[in-house]
Write a structure and sequence with these properties.
Elements (H helix, E strand, L loop, with lengths): L1 H16 L5 E3 L6 E2 L5 E5 L5 H4 L2 H4 L3 E2 L6 E4 L3 E10 L5 E5 L6 E8 L2 E8 L15 E5 L7 E8 L3 E3 L2 E5 H36 L2 H20 L2 H5 L13 H17 L2 H4 L1 H6 L1 H14 L4 H27 L6 H22 L11 H124 L3 H36 L7 E3 L1 H19 L6 E5 L7 E3 L1 H25 L7 E9 L9 E8 L29 H11 L3 E7 L3 E9 L1
Parallel strand pairs: 1-6, 15-17
Antiparallel strand pairs: 2-13, 3-4, 3-6, 5-12, 6-11, 7-10, 7-13, 8-9, 8-11, 14-16, 17-18, 18-20, 19-20
Helix pairs in contact: 4-5, 4-13, 5-7, 5-13, 7-10, 7-11, 10-11, 11-12, 12-13, 13-14, 13-15, 15-16, 16-17
Length: about 700
């Protein structure tokens, strides 16, 4: 008995499987939905056609009750079985109207055997499609009046919902014309909004508009992938790129978050919400990374949930900012309300709660309204900026007027103070000039005093000789008179010779005294500033002796040695002798002062010495003219390094108060430069100093 019951039970089940409705194709002007005429099977085992054709698998098919198949986000493959009969002699096509299907296989089946298979989907290059259109069209090779059964396998990592229709090619072309028109209007509108805001960015240089441009671009890009325009026109030969379409959703989350933070000034008006928005930035980056991994379905689910959570966050943030009196937040709330409604509707479509729209999806409707309202908000923002700028300009003008009045008052006061200060400075400057003139005169007088002391000491020796030989001649004259009276002419001749010799010495020392006096007069008189041919060796020797004897006259304890090494080949040079004499006297005085100071501190074996040397320098590449060199060196204490750079500054001196004006080396420097020469200093602390003067011949 059981052998009879079991076959009957199997036949009843098989009859139930084949009890699905047969789709009759009669209308050639419109598309016929296929969904209600199908049975479906969700396959998570990746079964092939041979396994599906087995009676055990066929028994698992269930009747589908909607026009458009919709299974939401799933990793399963879906099999559809349907039977069609062509009642008219026309060619019919099966349309799978979705962009996000990785692979599609349409099998023509006869008596549970595969007769023909057609392959398509995003994993295949565009040129392999039976009909080169953005949706998937499969020609149905039917004989009139004869039923034909088909098995359709679809598999994708994206939400599995799509229109499934049958119609003629002419009906498809009419339908595609409507689709392209609506999509062209949408894409053109979005492109217009994008270019308009890009223009505003280049005009204002505010990153807010750049974020908005990136946001609009990401939405437009995503919608273009939904309807396969980017695949058809940009990379028809690289289907691999279709798998990463969800990356545009990650970019949308990122750019929308950045735009919201900037547009609503969340950092200033809502700091906590501003910090919270970092979550969505990280979320978008995570989705973007997962798209390029095997976890594409996870990335899609995160993108969908992220958009939902982001929408709620944007609404809360918009309400919070608007409650604080920020007027543009009103447009923002209205815009995002429409977009959020579109997102919600799209997600409900993907989870099979709402029917799928064909010509346009709900996200496009919401995004179009949203970008329109946000553009109005950005325009209103510009008006606010314009009003604020006008108010700021008016305020600036008022402040500028007040400042102008204040500046005018301050100028009058300042002019008065400047006049008073100028008078004071003029008086101070005149006093300073007088003081400077007095100091310079003091320096000259000090130099003259030292010169005079040296001259006095120098002239004393010849005068002593004159006096001594004059007294001696007086005595000899008395003796001569006696010898004449005694008529001792031989002795008279001897005395006369002595008187004559003494008289010669008187003349010699008298002329020497005369030369010294003339040199003193020449030094002290006002000169015309004209250069004269001068024996530099004689000038150095004369002023060296005057310096030495002058210091000896002032300080009886002073004692030092001096030496000279003069180049006798030096001819007379063209200089102002009074000025160069003052230079030499100043350098000699400083050298003798230095060695004398060291003598006071050093033990008895120290021998102070000043050496004066002259050289004739031949012409060279650096100096085309012949020059002479005067070197004044001493073995004194040297110049400390910390004050070395100051020695030629006016009024700088290291001597005790009352012993120097600080103008000696300053005047020396100026005189040498005026003669076209140069002066250099080489010193080593504790060992001595060398001054080198070079003058043109």
């Amino acid at each position: 008995m059981k052998f009879i019951i079991l076959p009957l039970f199997f036949l009843l089940q098989l009859a139930g499987v084949h009890a699905q409705s047969i789709l009759h194709l009669r209308d050639t002007s419109d598309w016929k939905p296929v969904g209600k005429y199908t049975s479906y099977l969700r396959d998570n085992g990746y079964s092939d056609i041979q396994k599906i054709l087995q009676p055990a698998t066929q028994s698992r098919f269930k009747k589908y009750s909607q026009d458009a198949p919709n299974f939401g986000s799933t990793a399963d493959a879906a099999w559809f079985r349907f039977t069609v009969i062509k009642d008219v002699d026309k060619d019919f096509y099966l349309q799978v109207g979705s962009a996000f299907i990785d692979s599609i296989a349409l099998y023509a089946v006869n008596e549970n055997k595969e007769e023909e298979v057609q392959l398509s989907g995003d994993n295949y290059i565009f040129s392999q499609r039976a009909v080169k259109v953005t949706t998937f069209l499969f020609p149905l090779r039917l004989s009139a009046g004869k039923p034909q059964t088909y098995l359709l396998r679809v598999k994708t990592m994206q939400p599995l919902f799509f229109p499934l229709r049958v119609g003629t090619l002419s009906a498809f072309m009419e339908d595609t014309h409507k689709l392209d028109l609506i999509q062209g209007i949408y894409l053109g509108f979005m492109l217009l909004i994008l270019l308009y805001n890009l223009f505003l960015f280049f005009s204002t240089r505010e990153k807010l508009y750049l974020f908005y441009v990136a946001y609009v671009a990401s939405i437009t890009w995503f919608m273009s992938t939904v309807y396969q325009y980017v695949f058809e026109y940009l990379w028809p030969g690289v289907p691999l790129l279709n798998q990463y379409a969800v990356a545009s959703s990650a970019i949308t989350i990122l750019t929308a978050t950045l735009f919201t933070r900037e547009f609503l000034h969340t950092k200033k008006l809502a700091p906590r919400l501003h910090r919270f928005s970092i979550i969505f930035i990280v979320w978008s980056l995570l989705v973007f990374v997962l798209v390029f991994t095997p976890f594409k379905l996870t990335a899609l689910m995160l993108a969908q949930s992220g958009i939902m959570l982001m929408a709620i966050y944007f609404l809360i943030t918009g309400v919070a900012i608007y409650s604080k009196g920020y007027h543009p937040a009103k447009f923002y709330l209205m815009a995002w309300s429409f977009l959020i409604a579109g997102f919600i509707a799209a997600i409900l479509e993907s989870v099979n709660v709402l029917p799928v729209l064909y010509y346009i999806n709900s996200m496009q409707v919401g995004s179009a309204i949203e970008v329109t309202l946000l553009s109005l908000a950005l325009g209103d923002r510009i008006n606010i900026y314009k009003k604020e700028r006008e108010e700021a300009q008016a305020k600036s003008l008022k402040i500028a007027h007040e400042k102008a009045e204040l500046i005018q008052q301050q100028n009058l006061l300042l002019e008065k103070k400047v006049a008073e200060r100028t008078t004071e400075l003029t008086k101070s400057l005149n006093d300073l000039k007088d003081a400077q003139a007095q100091l310079i005169q003091s320096e000259k007088m000090a130099s003259l005093g030292e010169l005079t002391a040296g001259v006095a000491h120098e002239i004393q020796n010849p005068l002593n000789f004159v006096n001594n030989f004059s007294e001696l001649n007086n005595e000899l004259i008395q003796e001569l008179m006696q010898e004449i009276q005694e008529k001792n002419f031989k002795e008279v001749k001897v005395i006369v010779d002595d008187i004559k010799m003494n008289n010669g010495k008187i003349v010699f020392h008298g002329k020497r005294a005369d030369g010294i006096v003339k040199s003193m007069l020449q030094h002290s008189r006002k000169h015309t500033g004209l250069k004269e041919q001068t024996d530099i060796n004689a000038l150095c020797d004369e002023y060296l002796r005057l310096s030495y004897h002058g210091l000896r006259a002032k300080d009886k304890s002073f004692n030092a040695d001096y030496k000279t090494h003069f180049d006798e080949s030096i001819s007379k040079i063209n200089i102002i002798p009074q000025d160069i004499g003052r230079v030499l006297l100043n350098l000699f005085n400083n050298a003798f002062y230095a060695v004398n100071e060291r003598r006071k501190e050093e033990p008895a074996e120290y021998k102070p010495c000043v050496l004066v040397t002259t050289h004739k320098l031949s012409a060279s590449a650096s100096n085309a003219d012949e020059r002479i060199e005067i070197i004044v060196s001493d073995n004194g204490k040297g110049i400390p390094q910390k004050i070395f750079d100051k020695i030629f500054q006016p009024f700088f001196t290291t001597k005790p108060t009352g012993q120097g004006t600080g103008l000696g080396l300053s005047l020396t420097y100026d005189i040498i430069k005026a003669h076209g020469g140069e002066i250099k200093v080489d010193t080593k602390e504790g060992e001595g100093t060398v001054f080198i003067i070079r003058l043109p011949v």
